[in-house]
């Protein structure tokens, strides 16, 4: 193979290897970077979870925690996203008062949503690493899937904890939050592809 062609091929391979899979990969660094991102993600979730509005007809509050979890999973990727959300959940179970409305502990009726947070972060991170957060349409799909995973854990747990039938649990643990979820999905559909647009602009400059 001619030297020029070999250099071109090597450059193409290097570009593929160096291409960030998720937004966190844009930040240089190794273990120190990853540790800071994981801990920062957990803190970000805990902070946004404090924006909570209790609803009198259900033990599940209206909160920005879900939005923070899905953004963290998408931005950090599968492994870091799982660790970040896992730290948030485990620390809250151990007594850190950073669940919604400064709650902590485990076993309460809405605890299933926290379990769903971990699963959703892992799945959303995997989808984002495959380009699922690069366009508006893909990001909408990613966020919808993430929300469905959270409800898949949260609603049955809520039903079991309060001895509700599934239709009641859906009516009180999912339906009231769909409008808010739609707003969060639209916000993410602007934020994530917008962040990638900035990354591409900087890399091409």
Largest sheet: 2 strands, antiparallel
Class of secondary structure makeup: mainly alpha
Strand order of the largest sheet: 1-2
Q: Report helical residue fraction.
A: over 70%
List the helices and strands in order: HHEEHHHHHH
Average residue-wise pLDDT:
90
| Low-confidence segments | 5-17
Task: Kindly provide the radius of gyration, computed on alpha-carbon positions and rounded to a whole number of angstroms.
Answer: 19 Å
How many H/I helical runs? 8
* Total beta strand runs: 2
End-to-end separation in angstroms reads 31 Å
Oligomeric status of the shown chains? single chain
Shape: globular
What share of the residues does DSSP label as strand, in percent?
Answer: under 5%
Summarize the structure.
The protein has 205 residues and is mainly alpha-helical. Helix content is 70%, strand content 5%.
Structure commentary:
With 205 residues, the protein is mainly α. The protein is 70% helix and 5% strand. The chain is built from eight helices and two strands; from the N terminus they run H-H-E-E-H-H-H-H-H-H. It has helices at residues 3-18, 31-49, 65-76, 78-93, 111-129, 136-162, 166-173, 178-204; strands at residues 52-55, 58-63. It has a two-stranded antiparallel sheet. Helix 2 crosses helix 4, helix 3 (65-76) packs parallel to helix 5 and helix 5 runs antiparallel to helix 6 (136-162). Residues 5-17 have low confidence and may be disordered.
């Amino acid at each position: 193979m001619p030297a020029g062609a070999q250099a071109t091929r090597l450059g193409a391979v290097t570009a593929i290897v160096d291409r960030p899979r998720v937004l966190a990969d844009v930040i240089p660094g190794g273990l120190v970077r990853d540790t800071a991102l994981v801990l920062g993600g957990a803190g970000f979730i805990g902070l946004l979870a404090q924006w909570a509005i209790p609803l009198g007809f259900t033990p599940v509050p209206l909160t920005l925690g879900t939005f923070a979890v899905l953004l963290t999973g998408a931005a950090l990727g599968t492994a870091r996203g799982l660790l970040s959300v896992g730290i948030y959940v485990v620390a809250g179970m151990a007594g850190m008062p950073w669940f919604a409305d400064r709650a902590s502990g485990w076993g309460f009726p809405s605890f299933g949503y926290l379990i769903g947070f971990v699963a959703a972060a892992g799945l959303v991170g995997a989808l984002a690493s495959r380009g699922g957060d690069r366009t508006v349409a893909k990001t909408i799909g990613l966020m919808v899937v993430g929300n469905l995973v959270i409800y898949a854990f949260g609603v049955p747990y809520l039903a079991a904890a309060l001895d509700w039938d599934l239709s009641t649990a859906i009516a009180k643990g999912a339906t009231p939050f769909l409008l808010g979820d739609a707003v969060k999905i639209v916000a993410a559909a602007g934020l994530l592809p917008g962040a990638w647009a900035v990354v591409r602009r900087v890399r091409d400059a």
